[in-house]
Each structure stands twice: as C-alpha cells, then as structure tokens.
Design a protein that fits this description.
The chain has 155 residues and is an alpha/beta fold. The chain is built from 7 helices and 5 strands; from the N terminus they run βαβαααβαβααβ.
C-alpha cells in the first residue's frame, strides 16, 4: 500500500490562534517525512472576512481583493509559514470565504488533498447540539483522511 502524501491541507479558522503550536507540530509530523506540500488554508465566514479586511487595512473599494491575499497577511498563517520554512516544508497559502465545514471540504477537493488537518474543541453534548461542529462536518465529509487536533477546553 502506497502511503506517500502529496498534499496536506491544514485548515485554520479564527479560533485556532491558541493552538498553532499543536497544529504546526501535527502537520510537520504528517507532511515532513512524506515530503508533502502543505496547503495553509484560512477559512473565513463573510462576517469574519469583512472584519479581517478592516483590521488588515485592505481597500474595501477595490473589487479585486482576493481571499488568498487576505489569508497570506493573516497572523496565524504568517506564523505557520515561518515554522514550515524553518523545517524546509513546501507550502502554499489559500484563503476562502464561506461556512467553515463545507468550505474546508471544498478546499480539500480543490487541492486534491491526501490528508486534512483541522483543529477543534471538546464540546459538551449541549454545545454539539446547539452549535454544531466544523470538525465533525470535515471528519464526515472530507474526500480524504482527516487528522483532528483537539483543544481540551470545553465549549
């Protein structure tokens, strides 16, 4: 059985800044030995995207603001890029706007990912029922295996 990975998608969202070290360590463990390319993907909801455009001082009047450019200037992506460069891991950066779960699954398909790495939090049963779970959606719908990096804080 061939276990060579070509592409690993590391999906980052707004709540992942507190677990970047764990996500980076996991993606290095998965991609490094396989010489895989890591796609750093930051997925924004429309509201998050509008907030980031303002915070990073993008010109909102321009029609050609690209989510890839926005993701590439986001602090979490910049930190992960530095880590990957330090370990000589090839990477690309992608940005996308949409609901987190389905958009991550779409990106995994678009980049032909062999593995997806996604973070999440432990949730109480009520939290799962009320808020849903991006990680759960990705785990169930991704076109490839998914590695889940859990944060033990309850939501």
């Amino acid at each position: 059985m061939d276990t060579k990975l070509g592409t690993v998608l590391l999906a980052i969202g707004p709540s992942d800044s507190d677990r970047l070290d764990e996500l980076a360590a996991t993606v290095l463990e998965v991609a490094g030995p396989a010489d895989a390319t890591v796609v750093l993907a930051h997925v924004f909801t429309r509201t998050e995207y509008d907030d980031v455009l303002s915070r990073l001082e993008f010109d909102r009047e321009r029609d050609d603001v690209d989510p890839n450019d926005v993701a590439g200037r986001h602090e979490t992506i910049l930190e992960l890029q530095a880590t990957l460069e330090e370990h000589d891991v090839e990477y690309a950066t992608r940005g996308a706007v949409g609901e987190h779960g389905p958009t991550i699954v779409d990106l995994a398909t678009e980049v032909d990912a062999d593995r997806v790495v996604v973070g999440g939090r432990r949730r109480s049963p009520t939290g799962k029922a009320v808020f849903g779970s991006t990680a759960q959606e990705v785990l169930l719908s991704a076109p490839c295996p998914v590695t889940f990096v859990r944060n033990d804080d309850f939501e």
